[in-house]
Amino acid sequence: MTFFIETFGCQMNVYDSELVMNILLQNGYEKASAIGKADILFLNTCAIREKAVERVIHKMEQYAHYRKKGKLKIAGILGCIPQYSSERLKKELPFIDILSGPDNYDKLPQMIKESIKNKRIHEDIRLYKEQNYDNMLPYRENKFSAFVTVMRGCDNFCSYCVVPYVRGRERSRSLNEILKDINDAVSKGITEITLLGQNVNSYNWNGMTFAALLEKVSETENLKRLRFATSHPKDISYELIEVMSNNPKICKHLHLPFQAGSSEVLKRMNRGYTKEDYLGKIEKIRDSVPGIALTTDIIVGFPGETDDDFKETLEVMEISGFDNSFMFIYSERELTYAKKHYKDDVNRKIKAERQKQVIELQKRIGLEQMNGDIGTIKEVLVESVSKKRKTEMIGSTDQNRSVVFENSGKIKPGDYVKVKITDAGSVTLLGELIK
Ligand code: SF4
Q1: Is the peptide bond before 230 cis (omega within 30 degrees of 0)?
Q2: Strand 74-79 relative to strand 98-100, pairing
Q3: Chain mean pLDDT for the chain
Q4: Which of 75, 185, 224, 415 could in theory staple to 190 by disulfide, Cβ–Cβ 3.0 to 4.6 A?
Q5: By alpha-carbon position, which residue is closest to atom 1 of ligand 1?
C-alpha cells in the first residue's frame, strides 16, 4: 500500500512527517508521488491558530472525493489538531479513519491495520512524558538540509499558547540519539542542520546545556552549517552567545521572539522577561556576534494592550533591527490561561491597524538590514531554481537571508557558491555569481 503526507505548520512538523514516513516505509508501505495515487493520506497539522484548524478541515473535505471515487482507503489527521479538537474533527469529518497526536506515531502501522479490518475511527491522543522516538530516524526528503529535533514539548505555559497542552511537557533527547540522527543525515550528503525545539535554550540532558550540545554537534565532520530554533529570551544564556561568537559553523542568525514591547503585557503573557531584559540581551548579542541577523515573532492586540503598550512594541522593533518578523493578531485559543482569565478587549479594527503598522515598520527595517549587505561577497547555499524565473536560482546566506542570482546552468541545489550582493529588497537580496 502507498501513503502520502501533507504537512502544515512549523519546522517541527516537517521533522515529524519525515519520522512518520520512515516508520511507514520500515513497515512495508511505499511513498506515493501524489494524493491521487495514495491508499493512505495523512495531514500532519498545527493548532497554533484557529484559522489553521479551519484550513485543515477544509483541506480534508476537499480530499474526501478520493475516498469516494479514487484509490484512497485510509484518511488520517496527525499532530496538534487531533490533540486540540478531536471531537470537532470527528463531527465535521465523519469519514476520517485515524486521529493521532504527536506522541503516537510509532503506533500508526498498527492503527492502519486495525482501520482496514474494522471501519471505525481509530484515535490515540495520549501524551507521554518520555516519548522521544528513540531508535527511530526520519526519512530525509531534502538532500542538503535537514531538521533534527533535540527536544519535544514545552513547560513555559505562555498565557496565549496551546503548545504545552497539545505537545505535552518538555523533554530533551539524549546526545547519543541526536548524534545518530545527525550522522545519518550527514552520511547522506546533507551539510546544513537545524536543531529544533519549542525552546531549545532549556535543553538539558544529564546536565548538558544547549550551548554544550551545539559545540558537540559542530564537531561532526562534513557538517558545514549549524542552525537552531526556537530560542526563548528568558533562557538564552551568555554561554550560548559566547559559543555563537566563537564557532564558525554556527550560523549568524538568531530567531528570538519578543511578542510584545510592554513589560506589563509581557507579564500577562507569562513570558518571564521584561522589555529591558530583552533589549539587554539583544545588545549583548549584537556586541558579541558582529553581523548577526535577528528575526522575531510579534503579537498585537493582546488583552489589555493600550496605545502606549503598542508604542513600546514599535520601539523594540526599531532598536533591535530585525531582518524579518512573524506578525500576528491575538486570537483566543481554547485551553489557554488568557482565554480563561482575560477579556479579548482590543477591538478588531485597532488590532488590524496595529498589525498594519508593524508590517510597514518591519518592511522599512528589513530593507535597512538588507541594504547593509550590498557590495559584500557572501557564501550562499544553493536551494532551488526560482519558481518565478528559470534563469535564476535561490539560496541562503549564513544569516539566513535569501539571495536570488543568475542560474549559470553549472550549479545545483546543495552547492555552496560565492555571490556578490548587488541590490536588496525588504526580504530578499539580489546578487551576481562569482565565477
Ligand atoms: S515558549 Fe511559550 S509560545 Fe513558545 S511553545 Fe512554549 S508556551 Fe508556546
Answers
A1: yes
A2: parallel
A3: 95
A4: 185
A5: 156
435 CA → ligand 1 middle, Å: 45
Pocket residues: Cβ below 6 A from ligand 1: 154, 156-158, 161, 163-164, 198-199, 232
Q: In which band, very low, low, confident or very high, does the pLDDT at 206 lie, cut at 50, 70 and 90? A: very high
Domains defined along the chain, listed by start: 2-124 (3.40.50.12160), 145-371 (3.80.30.20), 377-433 (2.40.50.140)
CA of 228 to the centre of ligand 1 (A): 16
Instruction: State the Cα–Cα distance between residues 421 and 379, nearest whole angstrom.
Output: 10
All residues at 6 or more sequence positions from 415 whose CB lies less than 8 Å from its CB, including other chains: 381, 382
Cα-to-centroid distance, 155 and ligand 1 (Å): 8
Atom number of ligand 1 nearest to Cα 167: 5
| pLDDT score at 229 | 97
User: How do residues 360-373 score in pLDDT, each as one tens digit?
Assistant: 999 999 999 999 99
Measured from the CA of 155, which atom of ligand 1 is nearest? 6
Q: How much of the chain, in percent, has pLDDT values that exceed 70?
A: 100
Alpha-helix residue ranges (DSSP H) falling in 188-299: 210-218, 238-246, 263-268, 275-288
pTM: 0.95
Ligand 1 atom having least distance to the Cα of 157? 7
Name the one residue in this structure whose C-alpha cell is 470527528: 90
Question: What separation in Å is there between the alpha carbon of 304 and the centre of ligand 1?
Answer: 20
Q: Is the pLDDT of residue 408 over 90?
A: no
Q: To which residue does cell 547522506 refer?
A: 188
User: What is residue 77's DSSP assignment?
Assistant: E
